[in-house]
Write a structure and sequence with these properties.
This protein has 410 residues and is an alpha/beta fold. It contains 19 helices and 6 strands. Strands 1-4-3-2-5-6 form a 6-stranded mixed β-sheet, sandwiched between helices. α4 (115-121) runs parallel beside α7 (170-183), α15 (321-341) runs antiparallel to α17 (351-359) and α15 crosses α19 (381-409). The longest helix has 29 residues, at 381-409.
Length: 410
């Protein structure tokens, strides 16, 4: 074969283009409407780079239609797309991570098939998309751009290829998993879990989000807490104004250094070598103003724990020995159920649900009352069916152990 002869054995990678005009968008919607079966959906954000959690790229794939990469900031109205795909089954990997930013632009599914959640229910040890695709489809899927800044424009060709592959294999993956779920008798379990993903409400904003600063629990004095609060609020305001991730402006560790030191002058603050970050010096007046507010305010925050927060389990043996025994017994029982059904313990039952029902066990203690308590916390029917009886028996055994413990000691 000469240099001029074509090589028929080469497979050309399609050129990926981003839909960024209204006309292109409407053409895509028409094509998607003519496709068949479920639609694969993914979204890319710029977490760690931008303050907002908006989608900067939305990927769609449907058999008979093709792959579509949409630039959300350039398309203001997504209602035409929602009208076409709203009632389809959406196939996503880790749907809970993407639904918020999709709903922000008006895209909201009625039904989903979550391939990450399905992988967990099938007992697959590693549930990342690349790993699951390789295990079930035998295709290696590179994931080198997963943490990229997707607000970059124009998006590099290699990123677009990565983004397209994220959805182009999802339908095949979904079909393979559906067969396995049926073979393992987990179709109803999966259906309940997928429905719960769609129905789950967004968490209400925290009343005091600054309390989530890394390392804040090490601050003992209330005035230092005030400094941490004011610095966090100042950073959040700047991050919102500039649409830059807060940690890229000044890391949590730097805010904590300043809060602990509680400098008494702007110069003293600027002299803190560990107070670093891209905006630590350029916005020094902002940070010093925050410190001044903390030094002078009468609104001093106090150390406190939310009223509905349970004590850490490590303290239960001293504070509530019977609850401690119940929790330990129940954990062992659920570990056995988890192994029997090849479902991870955390998917079998939300760990917080188990802690809460162990701390405040229902009275009287019956399978009905345990089931009711789990249901009120939000456990799904399939979870209650598999766990209520083992939890009940674990609690009964724990009670008997506590009852006989003094006799054994004597």
């Amino acid at each position: 074969m000469t240099d001029e002869e074509p090589n028929d054995h080469l497979i050309e990678t399609p050129v990926r283009t981003v839909i960024s005009t209204v006309d292109e968008f409407h053409d895509a919607v028409e094509a998607i409407a003519l496709g068949t079966g479920p639609i694969a959906v993914d979204a890319e954000r710029a977490s760690g780079f931008r303050y907002s959690q908006r989608a900067y790229l939305i990927q769609l794939y449907r058999r008979g239609a093709g792959t579509f990469l949409i630039d959300p900031p350039a398309i203001e109205e997504f209602a035409p797309l929602q009208s076409v795909i709203g009632d389809l089954e959406w196939v996503l990997h880790a749907a809970s991570q993407d639904l918020a930013c999709l709903r922000e632009v008006g895209l909201d599914p009625s039904t989903v098939f979550d391939t990450e959640l399905a992988a967990r229910l099938l007992g697959i040890p590693r549930v990342g998309l690349g790993t699951v695709v390789e295990e079930l489809l035998g295709i290696h899927l590179a994931k080198e751009h997963s943490a990229a800044d997707w607000s970059t424009r124009p998006l590099p060709a290699s990123w677009l290829e990565y983004a397209a592959l994220d959805v182009e294999l999802l339908i095949d993956l979904r079909d393979s998993m559906a067969v396995l779920l049926r073979e393992q008798g987990k179709e109803r379990i999966a259906a309940e879990e997928f429905a719960a993903v769609v129905a789950k409400e967004e968490k209400a904003p925290l009343a005091e989000p600054w309390r989530r600063l890394t390392g804040i629990h090490a601050l003992r004095a209330d005035r230092h807490l005030a400094a941490a609060r004011e610095l966090w609020l100042a950073r959040d305001e700047l991050a919102r104004e500039t649409d830059i991730a807060p940690g890229r402006l000044v890391p949590d560790a730097s805010l904590m250094v300043a809060a602990r030191a509680l400098p008494t002058s702007r110069r003293e603050l600027a002299a803190l070598k560990q107070f670093s970050g891209r905006a630590s010096r350029s916005e020094i007046d902002r940070w010093w103003a925050a410190i001044e507010r903390a030094l002078t305010t009468d609104d001093i925050p106090v150390h406190r724990r939310a009223a509905d927060t349970l004590p850490p389990p490590r303290s239960w043996a001293d504070r509530n020995p019977e609850a401690d025994a119940r929790l330990k017994n129940a954990r062992a029982a659920l570990a056995t159920v988890s192994e029997e059904h090849a479902i991870p313990v955390e998917n079998l039952l939300t760990p917080d649900f188990l802690r809460r029902v162990a701390w405040n066990a229902p009275d009287p203690l019956t399978v009905e009352t345990v089931s009711e308590a789990l249901g009120e916390l939000g456990a799904r029917p399939w979870q209650i069916e598999l766990t209520a009886q083992p939890i009940l028996q674990a609690f009964v055994d724990a009670h008997q152990k506590v009852e006989t413990a003094p006799e054994a000691e004597s």
